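Model it.
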Amino acid sequence: MSLIDEAGGVRNGEELDIAGVDRYLKSALSGLEGELRITQFPGGASNLTYLLQYDNRELILRRPPFGKKAKSAHDMVREAHIMQALKPVYRYVPDVLVLCEDEAVMGCDFYVMSRIRGVIPRQNFPAELALTPVTTRALCLSVIDKLIELHKVDVEKAGLSALGKGQGYVARQVSGWSERFRAARTPDVNDFEGVMGWLQEKKPATEMAITLIHNDFRFDNVVLNPEQPSEVIGVLDWEMATLGDPLMDLGSSLAYWVQADDDPFFQLMRRQPTTEPGMLTRQEVIDYYAEKTGYKVDHFDFYTIYGLFRLAVIIQQIYYRFYHGQTQDKRFAMFGQIANYLEQRCLRLIGESAI
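Modeled.
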């Protein structure tokens, strides 16, 4: 079994026009040889990721999901431009090779980038890695360090100050995600009004800092060196990167961080290997991050609950497409139940919070 992350069959309803893509790429990139073969990577509940294989080259294609999309979401042009701007100052970003804004090719904007061949940590580590608790901890810290490194990028020096509005980020996120949830709510999902009201009331008056943030930093968005698994060689999925509060970024990441002592339903949601022996707990991640950055994390409850609410909105937006028959992907059938669970988790944490 290969340790390298591999693509599989294209999911029903997410097929691409192979002939059309092939014609376009051979006109845009020189030297492509042979017939195009297209497979699809697992995951991809948001933007979709495909492996394009020619006889002499492998490429990665990213496109938006099929069906209804939030107005500001899935902006492939913005994502590609962010990656191009970041590459000189954050070496883990893949090279963008082609950006297509001609919807006649595929019915949407898309881009093609270089492939970084390596291990993508998904639900469980490949057994072949033979990780011990010590090496798992080293890997975990290395991944967190890449988020910290991103947050320390000198935005002005890198010429990235136009990437986002910056100041007022917290308030915009609370109101923006609240609006998006209300727009995507389906009749079988709770209203989250108690959670949204608490976030509005408890949001900090100012940002802890304004830094470059990834906004979807997870284990399955990093690529590891298969020969040295604690070495991160790539960071993927820059769709939502912007300038904002780094603690909001950390809170969003920790929403996916299921640890060994979490309840059974949360365990069922686990999509990254954060329950492995040697992995840090969420609180250990927060403490490590604070030590390395110097940011105060005394009132991190707000960021934890914000992260869970934001995850619930993302899940609900996906579920909206499934509920209305705009996607046939059966993975999304339980997403309404997951959204309801996340509301209850938020409300429980609100009840326990001292802020």
